[in-house]
Amino acid sequence: MDLFQTLTEMIDLRSFSNLWYWIALAVMWSTASHWILGVPFDMVHRARKNGGQSAEDLEDLVRINVNRMLYVVQMAGLWILAIACFVLSSLATLGFGLGVEFAQAVFLLLFPMAAVGLVNLATARSIRLNEPQGDALYRRLATCRFAIQIIGMISIFVTAMWGMYQNLRLGVFG
Fold first, then answer.
1. Burial of residue 172 (number of CB atoms within 10 Å: 0-12, 13-18, 19+)
2. How far apart are CA 101 and CA 107, in angstroms?
3. FRET partner for 97 with CA separation of 20 to 30 A, picked from 70, 88, 105, 173?
4. Torsion over CA of 131, 135, 141 and 145, rounded to 10 degrees?
5. What does the pLDDT read at residue 167?
């Protein structure tokens, strides 16, 4: 037996049985629920608690990120949507139609993040339209974060169930 064969037998390189996949999933959702519209959520707590300069900084950062996001959507939104739909439908077809486990794993990471992008976009449009300040802005950002956390919980549950199913179906010995 050579070294490569020994290593591949000891370290399972399949997606759902790989520890790094689950670490990446956890880090991805932790980051997604912390950065709301490109603003770290601890700034919302600080602005709510201290007010003053912290509140002004938060409002400025939200305004900048909302304008940036809506500008990108206005300029390239259709292309972004087309590419995202192509990538997601390709991954779904490869993964669930043809049984490619890696495509399934990537789809289960990217599809919920597309939903997060839509939640962020809806929040950005709402903020641009209503221009909330103070407590109204804090509530809007907290609502966006809550929606992202709900999407994350559902995504982690579905991914865990599918991953366990795949691991049990394929078994320890492939």
1. exposed
2. 10
3. 173
4. -160
5. 84
Banded pLDDT at 2 (limits 50, 70, 90):
confident
State the amino acid at position 159 in one-letter form: T
Contacts of 140 (CB under 8 A, 6+ apart): 123, 126, 127, 130, 132
What's the full length of the chain, in residues?
A: 174
Query: CB within 8 A of 28, min separation 6: which ones?
Result: 109, 113
Closest C-alpha to 94, from 80, 108, 83: 108
> Which residues contact residue 95 at a Cβ distance below 8 angstroms, ignoring those fewer than 6 apart?
101, 102, 103, 104, 105, 106, 107
